[in-house]
Amino acid sequence: MKAVREKVELPEGRSFRVLRWSRSPSDVECLIAPGRAVGVQGEGNRWHFHPEMELTLFQAGEGTRFIGDHIGAFGRGDLILLGERLPHHWHTRGPSSGLSVQWHFPESHPVWAFPEHLEFRELFRRAERGLRLEGRTAAEVTGLMQEIARSQGAMQLALLLRLLALLASARSNELQPLSSRSFTLSAASQYQLAISRSVQHLVANFRKEVRLADLLRISGLSRPTFARQFKQHSGHSFSAFVNQLRLQAACRELRDTDRAILDVALGSGFPQLTFFNRLFRREMGCTPSAYRAQPRGPIKPGGRSSVGKGSAGTRSRIRAS
Length: 321
Prior knowledge:
Arc Repressor Mutant, subunit A; 10 helices
């Protein structure tokens, strides 16, 4: 979906920036040197994009991540590589902390003058869908990000290039794509703010009855324009988007509580238990009861690599008035 464009301002004399937060992705500081940081306005807690690539590590906290058309749960240790102009949003529950590195290497950037760096091109192309780092690669990259945060100047740049080289040579099964397709968003779109506001409304109210009429009022768009723009840029209809939010909430309840499955379904916003059971089995690859019986840990889809794939035609009773 179209998102608000974040303006990334690099520190003077820097070709990239390192960000850190200790409470919320909206309360961020840019690391200038060891022991020195300046506050910046973070956009991580709302749907947005920027021309810069980004590598984000959550050192604490949990919630739901939105990467392109991917909707999935995340927790401590989540490490995501984002391509240029890929819309993203982290909806955290409670406090969180982490690090982000942002850079922009367009065709005119001097980094491409070194033939050794051409191996980054395939990595950058794959990152257009968002990549979740796993295994040994994730562990090594986590360590390098922490070193980058403690460094400055030429040493910091050398560590970034080492990090990119590590990613470019990583095994494919340790770089898991998230979005089903790439997104190239235009900063000139007139629909960015309207759709971003609509997404915020859905994230905040998915447990309640969701009315299309409310979204049209919030966005200021006609029904055909809203439906076209939301579907074109998110990969989901708004009703399918809401269903995935509700499914993630249900997974958390099944993992963390002993509430009856009926109460979990209704409390997550599903109006019918039969619809909930059918959607859950298809998306998670098992029944709610079987999911609850699994060892507790991070929420991981069992059937599909990204919650929401193949959801066309599955709609709960969402009011279209």
